[in-house]
Amino acid sequence: MYSVIITIIVILLLVWDVGYYLRAYLVVFFGRLFQRRFKINETTVLYGICTTRDVDIFFTHMNNARYLRVLDFSRIHFYDRTGLYEKLAAVKGAALMGASTIRYRRPLDIFSLYKIETKMLCWDEKTIFLEHKFITLKDNFVRAIVLSRTHIVGLDLPTAMADVPEAHNMKTFPEEVVQWQQCLETASARLRKKD
Question: How many domains does the chain have?
Fold first, then answer.
């Protein structure tokens, strides 16, 4: 009996990223258990630690790819705590990552405790723009900052936001988002010409 269970666990670990899904569910579970609901214009905070699974080949600081992976949990936390997830789930909609850009300021050293502050910057008819800050707890320094653009599919975003009073003040795009959007559009136009 034990050998069957161990075999199943080993197979799951080999073919499925069990840790990713487990962490995603735990983020939602503990958020619902211990945190209040947030308004759409408030900043959510998710805590983490840079472990040996996160570091680069020199075992000194977080690997660049891990920042983006950890942001999945931060977005899941944000959508759940602000109620956006419920709106999407009610209509079987989805939030699909469209683009992200990251600026690394200083390394996030191994075993460093950090938090990710996530806030919505603005939104339009189909897209939500979020800002994420990786901040070390020991010195409160912003180690990296990320802009992300998430496409909302299967949900009429203006209708969903109509009953969210704070959302109406978030229609103005900050200058950095405007410039980033222009950069993305230029890159998309260049790719369309090649296709």
Answer: 1
